[in-house]
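anyone else get weird line breaks when pasting these?? whatever heres mine. first is seq + tokens for prot A
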Amino acid sequence: MESVAQEKGTLSIHTENIFPIIKKFLYSDHEIFLRELVSNAVDATQKLKQLTSYGEFNGELGELKVSVKLDKEAKTITVSDRGIGMTADEIKKYINQIAFSGAAEFVEQYKDKEGGKENIIGHFGLGFYSAYMVASKVEIVTLSYKEGAEAVRWECDGSTEFEIGPAERSERGTDVILHIAPDSEEFLSEFRLREILEKYGKFLPVEIEFEDKIINNPNPIWTKNPADLKDEDYLEFYKELYPYSEDPLFWIHLNVDYPFNLTGVLYFPKLKNDFQVQKEKIKLYSRQVFITDEVKDIVPDFLQLLHGVIDSPDIPLNVSRSYLQADSNVKKINGYITRKVADKLSEIFKNDREGFEKKFDDIGLFVKYGIISDDKFYEKAKDFCLVKNIDGKHFTFEEYREAVKDNQTDKNGNQIWLYTNDPKKQDAFVESAKKRSYDVLLLDTVIDPHFIGVLEQKLEKVNVKRVDADTVDKLIEKDITLESVLSEEQKEKAKVLFEGIMESKAASVQVEAMPTDELPVVITFPEFMRRMTDMQAISGQASMFGNMPMMYTVSVNANHPLTEKILATEDEAQQKELAKQAYDLALLSQGMLSGKALTTFIQRTVEVL
């Protein structure tokens, strides 16, 4: 075979300024140079394994790990592999020509376009050149696996000039030696290199050695057959991903090869009310190389509450492999994951209803989020999404319709589903509902104000009302009308009296016939305003009502003995005091009495006793 000749040449890129472009324009995150070089080394190693399996290489494979070495004194980082290596001709073909046909044209095409730099990968093989983000000079010393091949050295200082010639090397494979530039000396740190390697290379399919330790797990569970795995394998892997987290509730093993390749494991964590803490826990890999934890295009928004790993070589990436490009495969993957998750939940619900109910406080947040944000998910989830009443009993939507239809259908044929979001604070209203044998749901999570809206939108002739949204007989209006023991004149007198003792301009007074076992005065909030305020509080937006106080209704019970007693009191000061006491009681039942007003109420109560 012809020996390697010493020669010099010019890189075929037709421009002098390609390296500044690579350094500044293509790669915003300089640390990924190590991901690219280690990935190339892994690819070279995997290619050798394939050649062996095809019978095209019959030599000794030996130990095939990739190693990363740091030399602080020499200011070098070396990435070494024992893969296929390169001949001089291959270096000229793959390295010198930079795999695109005219950088000038490329620069013109992309430099001014918004999003231009996100649309480059696939067109150009630029992974190796990410080295020049941190290196002032790069050397390659390589020996091809081919019989009779000779070792080659290539070096280039970041200009378009390169040098190629013979090298001293007896072992098959490649060393890439980076001479770190003065502005990138942060990378001459064991801690920094380990951090990058663990971030991007934690699950690379070939062992990666750094500081005499293997830093990766080359066979993560998503690459294995689910039939060969036990529950403890999945739990152990979860701990590997999230060392300080509680155990997940359950998981889904993804494995599809048509119409796209996708593997992975998604875990259902115990959810907390703070969604942002939960998100960005799914990691995207491509052939076991970490890409990003920004998976919003692949994974629907509500599924980002899951944790775990997705690996697909079919997801199109930009040149720095750091984010996705819009693509029909991405949409298909998105739909597939939604379907798999819905099917898994449905399966658990059907096979173990009791276990599903026990977990529903945790997964309910996630299921409700899905129902709110994804119609396709709703179509499946409507059969396993549960609502829970204050006694802790769970119902599907249809089961609950059936349970309350006889007693909670109003005169217009609408079912009224009552709920509380704070059973302690709204206890008086819950008790009033119970006296009528009404059922009360508990809807107290951060997402329930939105969920309630979806229930009313999706379920025909269902209205959802909080127990304190109106007096109990107005919450579910029947054809029965209670007669008032007060005359119209007395009702007007009571209205004027109570309006006179109230300081709040946000309240309106009405006098109405209620059962005698209700409170003498009841304070309620209009459902629409309270719901809007709840939803805006969750989203962190200012209320559309500005700083206005929350409007509320003061309902004076015309049939309560105390109302009659107040109206019959002739001493005006005493009459006002009794009315104030009844009104303060109503405020107290809604948790609206505090500070000086509460102190005064307590003193007044003691005096009356």
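and prot B, same format (seq, then tokens)
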Amino acid sequence: MPSTSQHTFRLFTALSLAAAIEGLIATVFLFRVPSLESSNGWFGFSVSRLALGAGAIFLSILFFALGIILARQPAWLQHAAARFESLLASRENLLAIFSIGLFGLVFFAGIILAFSTSLTADLISTPLIYQRISPFLFWGFAIFLQSLTAFSLRYKAALLEKTPVSVWKVLRPLAWLIMAGTVAFVLADILAHLNITREIGFHYVAFLSALALFLSLSYIKEEYQDQAWAKKASELCGAGLVFVSAYFLYVSTAESVNYMHTPSKAYFNHLAEAFLQGRLYLESPDSTMDLTFFNGQWYVAFPPLAAILMLPGVALFGANGISTVVFTIFFASISVMLVYLILNELSDLAWSRLSRGDNLWVLILFAFSTIHWYMAIAGKVWYISRILTVTFFSLAALLAFKKKSPLLVGAALGIAMTARPNIVLLWPFLLSIYAQHLQQRSELRFSRLFKWSALTAIPIGLCVGSLLWYNYIRFGNFLDFGYATMNVGQNTATVQTFGQFHPAFILYNLKYMLVSLPKWSASCGGKLIPDPQGISIFLTTPALFYLWKSFKKEIWIAGAWLAVLLQVGLLLMHTGSAWEFGYRFIMDFMIPLVPLLAVAAGRRVSWLFKLLIFLGIAVNYIGVLWYFGVWCPA
């Protein structure tokens, strides 16, 4: 046998024996503290503790037996080792094993770090569970660290090769292993009575859904890539995977800051209840901030789309039986999915030079390197409307990119307007997309543009008419949304003097949109905290600096910039806002900016672009912690 194989046998013999010893040490730590009297069983320990200990001892024995077998090197093992070496001759198989080891290492390290922070302090039983299983978490971390290090040293040259491989083939074994491990963990949790799955059962459903979609996508791409239906099926699986992943991560964020229930000042759930009871006003609201008082009743001035969409849930579970946080997370995740489809459509049209793989970087930018992250889990009245606006305008843009009927495009935009009417100023972006399609077919004529515009105007007009009628039946005035008399605290007098929009607010908004920075706070333990009026969009989303590279002589790019400028021009005259992270009004024109960023990225997402994305993720994560009281607890 070659000396390298002898070296490999000795190396993995040492690893097996080390794992056995570490398992016994973990078992000793498990039984250092007796169980509570209420759960005492044999020898003063609970059944779950004894079950964990028995499992650890059994695994330690298996590792010890494996070490002895490896040391003796029987003929059948040498034959198996030779087959294993031939299997690793394929770089895809080699990388698949490496990815499994790397995932295990990150998985155990992530759990250990997560439970070492204050983010889990408010979870009722999780700290106790962590104390019970922490020795095994460190054991698992040690096994993967040792094994991955040994494997990397043994196959260093092959791992560092630059031969192209199929990502799907590399990651598919890992996905199957994760699915099997997840099912095994659920069964172990049930048998050991840990009740972890009862606390975070949703995560398993979302996680397994994401894995199932990934495996389906992988199978289709590898086995049926030449079939006509495969592209559509792949797109659906990919979109579903993006939705589930975004939903999983947003919910996990909300749970980590203990913010899953409907907050105060959500209002739309109670407005939906009022609609079901035949009212347009709220009875005894928990707060009157940002409500409008008229004829002795409190009204929600904001347009009613959110309340309409909440009607089924409120009808089934009541106003207090639904979570507006989960509601906004659901639609925010749909927005991420729609942006994914938009970016892919841009690549397919060759309007962007990025590959579908590089599009994922721009998608991550939108989902986590913008204030969309914290807004997705805020669940309050202002954020609910804005998230819905992003969702339905994203749908309108996707329909336009896919050359769908102008009636559908106009309907999506009109629905978005029933959340935030000012979104109509982005209509030139949609028109420019249609014009770009016409130009590519050499059919760009005014008559076609006029017809398309007229058709989009039909559903938009219906939605505008519905909004105006809603105003009239509330306030007796078609044009009165109730903003002028809204109870906005110390800013009420300002609004009543200048109205909702006025040039007097331009300098104020320019400051908080472009140049406002965090402030040093001694009361927050000497940390930097954001200005509650907002901080610069270039700080919350540093990748926006790349926008200067998006200027191209294309109709749709000009339309995107025109839409952005129109929206910014209006928003600069808005009264502004308070107690927010970042400049939240950027979401009113973020969807045109995302394709522009894809164009600005060029053929490949550069290391600098990626660095700016990661900086934005870090800033927005701090923003999440700050907004929900973790960064600077009261």
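btw re prot B: Strands lie at 292-294, 297-299, 519-521, 527-529. Residues 3-247 form one domain.
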